[in-house]
Design goal:
The complex is a heterodimer. Chain A is α/β, with parallel strands linked by helices. Helix content of chain A is 36%, strand content 22%. Chain A has one domain: P-loop containing nucleotide triphosphate hydrolases (Rossmann fold, 3-Layer(aba) Sandwich), CATH 3.40.50.300. About 5% of the residues of chain A have low confidence. In chain B, 49% of the residues are buried. Chain B is built from 14 helices and 14 strands. The chains are: A alpha/beta, B alpha/beta.
C-alpha cells in the first residue's frame, strides 16, 4: 500500500483588497477568500486532479502548497512534516522535492536564456555540480521528456508550444522531485500536442514514481490522467473522489453541470441544451454569497426544491460528507 | 450560391533572421455558400487565422497577401477583393514555387483599403479570439455596439442606434441589457464580453461572419453556452459563418462543411458529417478503419480525448513530431514526416510531389496520394 506523501488540512488563503485611500488608512478592505478551508491528501505515485472554473482558487492551492505564497491558516504536511510552519531555512531542502510546472511558459522561461542555460540553472540550483555531471544530467532530462538535443541552443521563443512545455517539465524534473504540481499543463496546446504531453505525464509517472497534482479546467484531460479528482467551486472543494466515479456518477449539482457542459457530450446527446439552467452563468462575485451554500444561487436542485432554507442558512453550510466509499460531497441534497 | 469563393490564396511573411519566407497560407481555396457554416480546423500555425485576416484585408506585415482571388458576392454584385493584385505584386517562380516577391506595399495597402472600405466590418464582420483585447477599454460596450450600428446600417440617429444596440444585446442573451449597456469591457466576464463582441459583429448585419476561435480561453461551462448561442443565432438568423477553431467538438456542433488545414494548405475539405461525424467515431474505433479520411484528419480525431480513452484507460494517440514549420516546407506532401499511413507504393511520390486535392466522394476532397484516382 502506498503511503500518503502530502496532506493538506483546512488550508485557507485570503487575499485582502483595498479600495481607495480611505480604506487603506483605516486598514479596512475587502477580503477575497481564494481558498477556503480545504483538506485533501495525496498518496505516492498518485495523481490528484483539481478542476473548477477560472477563479475558483485552483492555482492558489498549488502555489500555497509550495509555499510560494504563505497560507492564511491551515497545515500542509509533507512526508510527515508540517511544512507550513517551517522557517525558510528548514524548508529549503524540501523545495527540491516539490516542483511546479507553470501555466504560462512564455512567462516562466527566461526569454534571454538558451534552453541549455535554463536546464543547467535548474540542475545546479540545489548544489553545484561538475560540468560533466551537468552535461550527463541534461542529456538524461532531454531523453526523459523526448526533446531533441539540437534544441538546447535555442531560445524559448524559437520553440513550439509543445517543446516549451517539455522544457518546463524537464526543468521541474531536474532536481528529482517527488511531487509535481502541474498548473494547466495542456491549456493553449493543440490537441495532437496535448496528447503527446498527456502521454508524457503518464510515462514519467510510471518511470519515476511521481505524484502529481494536476490542475486543469479541461475535464476530459483531468479524467484521463487522474486517479482522484477534487472539484472546486469558489475556494471550496465541493466534491472529491475517484476520477472515474466522479465522471460517471457525479453527485454534486455543480459537478454534474460541469461534466454535462462538455461540448462533445452535448453534440452526441439529442438534448443539446441539457446544461441550460437559465440564470446568469457568466457573472458572479468572488466574494462569496453571504449565507449558506455558495453554489445555491446557481444551483438547479435548489430551485427545483423550492429554495429550501437549509441551503441559504449561514449556520448550515454543507461540509464534505462521505456518501459512498470515499466519495465525498458537500451538498444537502446530493443527486 | 456561394457568397465567398477563395481561389489559390497565398499569404507570405518574411523572416529576417532566417532570410526566408514564412509561407503561412500557401494556396488555399475555399467556398462558403449562403446560410452555410464553414469550419476551419487545424493546429496552431496552420494558417487558419491568417486566411481569415487575408479575407478581411487586415494583413499589415510584408509581403502579406501576394496571390489569389477572393470572390465576394453581396446584393447580387460579384467582387474580387484582391482585384488587380497582379499590378502590385511581381512573383518569380521556380518549379511552381514562389521564390521571390516584389510588392508595391504602400500602393497596395491604399488600394485594398479603398476596396475593403465598404466591406470590412459591414459586409464581412469578424469576431476575434480575445474579446477583451479587441474592444476599446475606454468606451462602454453599448456605445461600441451603437457605433457599429450607425456606421454600417442605414440607422444614423443616436437614439435609434441605441435601441438597435439593445436589441442585439438581447439577441445574444445578455441579461439586463439596459444595465450592461453602460458597462466597460473590463466590467464583464469573459463569456459576457464574448457575447458583446458577437453582438457588435452582428450589429452591422453582415453577409458573412468570421469567428476566429470564439470559445478558446473560456471555461467549459461558458464555452458550451457560447456554442449554444451561436447554434441558435445560426438557426434563427440564418447567418453565413466561417468558424475557425482548433476545437473539433465545437466545429462538429456548429458546422456544415469543414476544411482541415495544415501547414498553409487545405488537406481535406468536405461536409462536416463525412469528416467529423460522431457515427464514424463510434463505429470505427481505431484510425486504421478511418481509411476514407486524410491521415492527418484521422490522427487528429484520434488524439482528441474521448470517453473511450477514459474508460478503456488507453493512451491517447498523439501525432508524433511537431506542427509543420512553414519556413521550410518540404518538397512533397506537407504531412509526410508525421504520416503513419505511407506505404511503399506511394512513398516516392509523397516525398517529392505535393498531391493535389483528389475528389473522393460527393464534394469530399482529400490532398493525399492514397486517394489518387
Amino acid at each position: 500500500m502506498s503511503q500518503t506523501i502530502l496532506e493538506v488540512v483546512n488550508l485557507k488563503k485570503h487575499f485582502s483588497q483595498r479600495k481607495g485611500l480611505l480604506s487603506s488608512i483605516q486598514g479596512r478592505g475587502d477580503v477575497i477568500t481564494a481558498v477556503d478551508d480545504i483538506s485533501f491528501y495525496l498518496k505516492e505515485n498518485e495523481t490528484m486532479g483539481l478542476v473548477g472554473e477560472s477563479g475558483c482558487g485552483k492555482t492558489t492551492v498549488g502555489k500555497t502548497i509550495l509555499r510560494l505564497i504563505p497560507p492564511t491558516a491551515g497545515e500542509i504536511i509533507y512526508d510527515g512534516k508540517v511544512i507550513s510552519k517551517m522557517s525558510a531555512r528548514q524548508f529549503q531542502p524540501m523545495r527540491r522535492e516539490m516542483q511546479m510546472i507553470f501555466q504560462d511558459l512564455d512567462a516562466a522561461l527566461n526569454p534571454k536564456m538558451r534552453i541549455r542555460t535554463i536546464l543547467q540553472e535548474a540542475i545546479n540550483v540545489h548544489g553545484k555540480k561538475s560540468t560533466k555531471e551537468v552535461k550527463l544530467r541534461t542529456q538524461d532530462l532531454l531523453e526523459k521528456v523526448n526533446l531533441k538535443e539540437s534544441k538546447l541552443s535555442n531560445f524559448p521563443h524559437e520553440l513550439s508550444g509543445g517543446e516549451k512545455r517539455r522544457v518546463g517539465i524537464a526543468r521541474a524534473l531536474a532536481v528529482n522531485p517527488r511531487i509535481l504540481i502541474a498548473d494547466e499543463p495542456t491549456s493553449a496546446l493543440d490537441v495532437s500536442i496535448q496528447a503527446q504531453v498527456v502521454n508524457l505525464f503518464k510515462d514519467l509517472q510510471a518511470q519515476l514514481k511521481l505524484s502529481y497534482i494536476f490542475i486543469s479546467h479541461d475535464l476530459r484531460i483531468v479524467e484521463l490522467v487522474s486517479h482522484k479528482v477534487a472539484v472546486m467551486y469558489l475556494g471550496k472543494i465541493v466534491e472529491m473522489g475517484l476520477a472515474q466515479r466522479i465522471a460517471s456518477n457525479p453527485r454534486h449539482p455543480y459537478t454534474q453541470i460541469l461534466w454535462s457542459s462538455l461540448v462533445e457530450k452535448q453534440s452526441l446527446e439529442a438534448n443539446a441544451t441539457s446544461a441550460d439552467l437559465g440564470g446568469d452563468w457568466g457573472v458572479y462575485d468572488f466574494e462569496r454569497p453571504e449565507t449558506g451554500c455558495r453554489f445555491a444561487p446557481r444551483c438547479p436542485v435548489f430551485i427545483d426544491r423550492d429554495r429550501p432554507k437549509i441551503c441559504t442558512d449561514p449556520t448550515t453550510e454543507p461540509t464534505l460528507i462521505d456518501i459512498d466509499n470515499a466519495h465525498k460531497v458537500a451538498c444537502h441534497y446530493p443527486l | 450560391m456561394s457568397i465567398l469563393k477563395i481561389e489559390d490564396l497565398h499569404t507570405y511573411f518574411y523572416s529576417k533572421s532566417k532570410q526566408a519566407f514564412i509561407r503561412s497560407v500557401d494556396g488555399v481555396s475555399l467556398q462558403i455558400a449562403a446560410g452555410e457554416t464553414l469550419g476551419i480546423v487545424g493546429e496552431s500555425g496552420s494558417g487558419k487565422s491568417i486566411t481569415a485576416l487575408s479575407i478581411m484585408g487586415l494583413i499589415g506585415a510584408e509581403p502579406g497577401v501576394i496571390a489569389g482571388k477572393i470572390g465576394f458576392k453581396t446584393n447580387g454584385i460579384q467582387k474580387n477583393l484582391l482585384q488587380d493584385i497582379n499590378e502590385y505584386v511581381k512573383l518569380s517562380k521556380q518549379d511552381h514555387r514562389i521564390m521571390a516577391v516584389k510588392k508595391k506595399a504602400k500602393e497596395w495597402h491604399r488600394h485594398t483599403d479603398r476596396v475593403m472600405k465598404k466591406i470590412r466590418g459591414k459586409e464581412i464582420a469578424m469576431i476575434f479570439q480575445d474579446p477583451k483585447a479587441s474592444m476599446n477599454p475606454f468606451i462602454t460596450i453599448g456605445r461600441q455596439i451603437s457605433e457599429a450600428v450607425r456606421l454600417n446600417t442605414p440607422i444614423k440617429n443616436r437614439r435609434e442606434a441605441k435601441e438597435k444596440a439593445l436589441y442585439w444585446l438581447e439577441q445574444v442573451k445578455i441579461d439586463s441589457a439596459r444595465l450592461r449597456f453602460n458597462n466597460y469591457p473590463y466590467g464583464l466576464s469573459g463569456g459576457m464580453c464574448q457575447r458583446a463582441m458577437i453582438a457588435m459583429a452582428l450589429a452591422s448585419e453582415p453577409a458573412l461572419l468570421i469567428a476566429d476561435e470564439p470559445t478558446t480561453g473560456l471555461d467549459a461551462t461558458i464555452q458550451s453556452k457560447i456554442v449554444d448561442l451561436m447554434a441558435e443565432l445560426k438557426s434563427v438568423l440564418g447567418i453565413t459563418m466561417m468558424l475557425i477553431s482548433h476545437d473539433i467538438d465545437v466545429i462538429k456542433r456548429l458546422c456544415d462543411r469543414v476544411a482541415v488545414m495544415y501547414g498553409g494548405t487545405v488537406l481535406e475539405y468536405g461536409s462536416a458529417r463525412d469528416i467529423l461525424s460522431a457515427d464514424v467515431e463510434t463505429k470505427f474505433e481505431d484510425q486504421i478503419n478511418r481509411e476514407f479520411l486524410h491521415p492527418y484528419t484521422s490522427a487528429l480525431l484520434a488524439s482528441v480525448p474521448s470517453e473511450d480513452h477514459v474508460k478503456g484507460n488507453k493512451p491517447l494517440q498523439a501525432i508524433e513530431g511537431d506542427v509543420l514549420d512553414t519556413i521550410n516546407i518540404p518538397r512533397g506532401c506537407r504531412f509526410y514526416r508525421r504520416c503513419n499511413r505511407v506505404n511503399a507504393a506511394i512513398e516516392d511520390k509523397c516525398q517529392t510531389v505535393e498531391p493535389q486535392l483528389f475528389q473522393t466522394g460527393n464534394q469530399h476532397q482529400i490532398r493525399c496520394w492514397l486517394y489518387a484516382a
